[in-house]
Amino acid sequence: MTRTDAVHLGLMVAALGLTYLVPFELLLSSHVILGPAHYATEISWLHDRKYFLPRRGIAVGLAITAIVAALIDNASWFGFVIWAAFVGCALLAAARTAFQSMMLFMAAIVLTGVIVWRISCWSSRSTVSRCASWRPQPGTGVMKAVQRA
Description:
The chain contains 6 helices and 2 strands, in the order ααααααββ. The protein is mainly α. The protein is extended.
């Protein structure tokens, strides 16, 4: 075991003992002290790799979305706003070409449809035609709609 490994092991054991003695206070102090310190050391690294959004207007839009989401008390609308913000960010961050944007947008539409369909099936007593699970019937090989309980 190298000296560095021994120091790391000793620090981890000391952190384990300190966590056992004062769990909440240590958690609070680690978030208050180490969180900003870690963030301050990562800023130049993030700038070097261009991990920030290209325009400030996007950040303002996300901040407004966060404020609106904080004021929504309906869970369905809250989920929709968060999902829309996620899809928008994915389109802005991941898509480099128009084709990639189109594919991501189509995937988001399909996923949104699946989520809405599943939520509507779970939230109400639905008919067999709308929310049935299609399963092969034993011994027949025929697909038949089975009502979910």
